[in-house]
Specification:
This is HTH-type transcriptional regulator. Keywords: DNA-binding, Transcription, Transcription regulation. With about 180 residues, the protein is mainly alpha-helical. It has two domains: about 80 residues, Winged helix-like DNA-binding domain superfamily/Winged helix DNA-binding domain (Arc Repressor Mutant, subunit A); about 90 residues, no CATH class. It has eight helices and three strands. Strands 1-3-2 form a three-stranded antiparallel sheet. A hairpin with a 2-residue loop joins strand 2 and strand 3. The longest helix has 30 residues. The termini are far apart.
Length: about 180
């Protein structure tokens, strides 16, 4: 494996750990992303020095996230794997998976808490009730924004990202007030 690829695979594995992803899973995803041809589980295990069972479990997890897929190779009955190489698709799939596992349950819990709060309940102060409602409004707005962004073409999103703080300046120009302060 070329040194540059090895460094990225190792670093991606470290980052995966920081993001709550198993190091092996992240390393395998990086290796497949940087591979020009599909790899077998045996190829992956040998290249990364991982146990075959670890590779098998990691491949299943990556398939669950839809970050890799099996591809047939003529003349070889073994399973070969290839990574999603479209960076927007990768980011979208990760965001969708994390939202479903982490954000959606939180939104449901906040909604349940707000519904469960009795306006006349003396155990909960008006300030706490107000904070719960603000929290609900915030997560609902962010969730709505996320859903809208799924329909925005990647090229448009990249233009918005490249604009950076210019977007805030544009909003001031059209009369939208900044509420961050």
């Amino acid at each position: 494996m070329p040194l540059a690829v090895e460094q990225i695979v190792l670093r991606w594995g470290d980052l995966g750990g920081q993001w709550g992803v198993n190091r092996s899973v992240a390393q395998i995803q990086a290796l497949l992303y940087l591979s020009e041809k599909p790899l077998t589980a045996e190829d992956i295990a040998a290249t990364l020095g991982l146990a075959r069972s670890n590779v098998s479990n990691s491949l299943k997890e990556l398939q669950t996230w839809k970050l890799i897929h099996r591809v047939p190779v003529l003349g070889d009955r073994r399973d070969h794997y290839q990574a999603e190489t479209d960076l927007w698709q990768m980011a979208t799939k990760v965001a969708q998976g994390r939202k479903a596992r982490e954000i959606d349950p939180m939104v449901a819990a906040i909604n349940d808490a707000v519904v469960g709060v009795n306006e006349n309940d003396s155990d909960i102060s008006p300030e706490v009730k107000a904070r719960l409602k603000r929290m609900q409004a915030f997560v609902t707005t962010v969730d709505d924004w996320y859903q809208q962004m799924l329909d925005v073409p990647p090229e448009t999103l990249m233009r918005l990202i490249r604009m950076g703080s210019k977007v805030a300046s544009l909003l001031k120009f059209v009369g939208v007030k900044d509420r961050s302060g």
